TrEMBL record:
PANTHER family linked: MEMBRANE TRANSPORTER PROTEIN (PTHR30269:SF37), TRANSMEMBRANE PROTEIN YFCA (PTHR30269)
Name of the molecule in the record: Probable membrane transporter protein
Subcellular locations according to the entry: Cell membrane
Family: Belongs to the 4-toluene sulfonate uptake permease (TSUP) (TC 2.A.102) family.
Transmembrane segments annotated in the record for this chain: 41-60, 81-114, 126-150, 162-182, 188-207, 219-238
Keyword Transport among UniProt keywords: yes
Keywords: Cell membrane, Membrane, Transmembrane, Transmembrane helix, Transport
Topological category with respect to the lipid bilayer: Multi-pass membrane protein
Length: 240
């Protein structure tokens, strides 16, 4: 990658981290389509590795508001889902994985706009955790299922519980991807270079939490995410 590519990635990761720190999900929605455009060979491992860092930061910050029981049931589905996701990440071509990324983004955005509100009971949490595991490990976009189940929670509780869930899930996903050979030296180098950018985005999220309306921020993020997915589809269709 050239310096311009690294700059684009830095901006995307900073924005993605700020979003994740503000509403509890969305880092993959913002970052994955951009990475798929600039450096598709880094997917999905890079986004999942960065997610480990940002979710750790948010979990520590919101530790007093965690719903450990709910997160536990979701993790019961996440782990087997992650195994399937790791297999898909290795078995699929870069182009196919890019299509899957775009499709998952648009599905997540569409479901959010449709306003579906499932009850966060045991069955739905396990099912959403499983789907999140598949999507999160294979495409680095696993937030939508959990956001649908946990929507309506107080902001701090939503951020803390989702971050704790994604922290454990992301560690599992990275381990499985590494075992499958999907974590390369290039991925590790990119992660180390972008880790300070995550810290900047986390600090920005603290400022956003004080001054911005979470609903407006979420709307802007969803629109931006959909735009990124559309750009990715255009590139895939025209081979640019």
């Amino acid at each position: 990658m050239n310096p311009a590519d690294y700059l684009i990635l830095a901006v995307a990761v900073c924005a993605a981290t700020a979003l994740q720190g503000s509403i509890g999900f969305g880092a993959g929605l913002v970052a994955a389509p951009v990475i798929a455009l600039v450096a598709p060979e880094l997917l999905p491992a890079l986004v999942v590795m960065l997610a480990c860092l940002v979710t750790l930061l948010v979990t520590v910050r919101e530790r007093a508001h965690l719903d450990l029981k709910g997160a536990g049931w979701a993790l019961a589905g996440r782990i087997p889902g992650s195994v399937l996701g790791a297999w898909l990440a290795v078995a699929m071509s870069t182009a196919a994985l890019s299509w899957l990324v775009a499709g998952c983004v648009l599905a997540g955005v569409g479901s959010a706009f449709l306003g579906w509100r499932p009850v966060p009971n045991r069955t739905n949490l396990v099912a959403a955790g499983g789907l999140s595991g598949v999507m999160g490990t294979a495409t680095a976009i696993g937030g939508a299922p959990m956001a649908l189940v946990w929507q309506g929670q107080p902001p701090a509780r939503l951020r803390g519980t989702m971050s704790a869930f994604f922290l454990v899930g992301s560690v599992v996903s990275v381990s499985l991807l590494a075992a499958a050979g999907a974590v390369t030296s290039g991925t590790v180098a990119a992660f180390l270079w972008l880790a300070p950018v995550v810290l900047v985005g986390f600090l920005v999220s603290r400022w956003l939490n004080r001054f911005l309306d979470a609903r407006r921020l979420r709307l802007v993020a969803l629109i931006a995410s959909a735009g990124g997915a559309v750009l990715l589809i255009i590139r895939l269709v025209f081979g640019g």
